[in-house]
Amino acid sequence: MEYLTMLFAIVIIIIIMSASSELITKPPITNYHHMQMIMQWPPTFCGRPDKPCKPSVEMSDFSIHGLWPGNATGHTPFTCNVPENPTTVEKVWLNDRSLKNFLGLYWPSLEARWTDEKLWKHEWAKHGYCTSEIVPDVEYFNGAITFARRLKDMLKILENGKMGPKNHPAYTVMGMKTFISEQVLKDKNIDVYISCDHQRATSSNVFFLKQIHFCLDKSLNTFISCPKSTATRGCGRVDDQNLIFPISLRTQGSLIIKDRIGD
Question: Which domain of life is it from (predicted)?
Answer without folding.
Answer: Eukaryota
